[in-house]
Specification:
Elements: H1 3-9, H2 12-32, H3 41-65, H4 67-73, H5 86-110, H6 117-132, H7 140-160, H8 170-201, H9 203-208, H10 214-218, H11 220-246, H12 250-272, H13 277-308
Helix pairs in contact: 2-3, 2-7, 2-13, 3-5, 3-6, 5-6, 6-7, 7-8, 8-11, 8-13, 11-12, 12-13
Length: 310
């Protein structure tokens, strides 16, 4: 198996994005806001590793189930059965999940919260059921994937913040966790839109697999209108959140307006008239960029407040 094929199989760019977001919260947001944390640098690294290897397993099982659909949707990018045998893919899927569970168990043990390993078990099961069943159903598959993406953010707070909550620091700890929830909600909304766009992009292969996604049931044009309407939810919420939270921090407010809200408005105008596969690919990439830039706002927020207090 070529290294390039393996990296493509596990969606290395997406994994880097997940790791980056977790690292930004751990090493920028938490220290600046004096959040008490439970994980050492090594144990946090194990948590990141656990998240990434289980996510990688999820991408692998996705490609295993999507072989026939991918032959139609993206014939030049089919890996399983061409670059990688199904046997190799299944082996990687099983070994990655096993390693992920063991490393997750270790992290849970270090904070004396063995019950937290259930998060990883549930994640693995959801990824399996999503690929075998949920993704064939309208909205359910989109929601499950979006929840799992938001969980990759929340898990940092669950393992690093919650175990350190005491009577004296409860307010500060829960505020920090609430910020994580805000960003997880942002990731959920953007990922939900992106999954809906990808359904419209992959409609031909999904039809072959007898899936019942919104674009297949209602057609691409109506699906575009639904995506456009759903887009108003993050647009309104992010606008309200930005002005409510950063009205006295002009630099951060300007960042949110310029790199998140304006691109989101642009996405809405483009998706409304999307027709070709290329249109949907561009829209999907735009949402991915907006999500990344939105997550990076935590750096600007933290550093702006840090230097303002000096």
């Amino acid at each position: 198996m070529k290294l390039s094929s393996f990296l493509q199989l596990v969606r290395w760019k997406n994994l880097v994005m997940i790791a980056l977001i977790q690292i930004l919260f751990k090493f920028i947001y938490f220290p600046i806001f004096s959040v008490d944390t439970a994980l050492s640098i090594f144990n946090f690294s194990v948590l990141v590793f656990t998240t990434l290897i289980i996510a990688a397993a999820g991408y692998i099982i996705n490609d295993i189930y999507d072989i026939q659909a991918d032959i139609i949707n993206k014939p030049t990018k089919v890996l399983v059965s061409r670059e990688i045998t199904k046997k190799q893919a299944h082996f990687l899927y099983n070994i990655f999940n096993a390693i992920g569970l063991l490393s997750g168990l270790y992290v849970a043990y270090t904070i004396d919260k063995l019950s937290f390993v259930a998060i990883f078990v549930i994640t693995i099961l959801l990824l399996k059921v999503y690929n075998s069943d949920f993704k064939k159903r309208p909205f359910i598959g989109n929601i499950v994937v979006s929840l799992l993406v938001s969980l990759s953010i929340l898990i940092v707070g669950v393992f690093d913040i919650i175990p350190m909550v005491t009577e004296t620091n409860a307010v500060n700890q829960y505020y920090a966790f609430r910020v994580l929830i805000d960003y997880a909600a942002f990731a959920f909304m953007l990922m939900l839109l992106r999954e809906m766009v990808k359904d419209a992009e992959d409609v031909n292969g999904d039809k072959h697999m007898k899936m019942k996604t919104i674009p297949i049931i209602l057609g691409r044009k109506r699906a575009n209108h639904i995506i456009f309407i759903v887009s108003f939810i993050p647009l309104v919420l992010i606008t309200f959140y930005s002005f409510n939270s950063f009205s006295n921090v002009p630099f951060v407010l300007a960042y949110m307006l310029i790199v998140v809200l304006i691109p989101l408005l642009y996405f809405m105008t483009k998706i409304l008239y999307a027709k070709t596969k290329r249109d949907y690919i561009k829209a999907s990439k735009l949402l991915k960029i907006i999500m990344l830039l939105g997550m990076l706002s935590i750096v600007f927020i933290s550093l702006t407040i840090y230097y303002a207090d000096r």
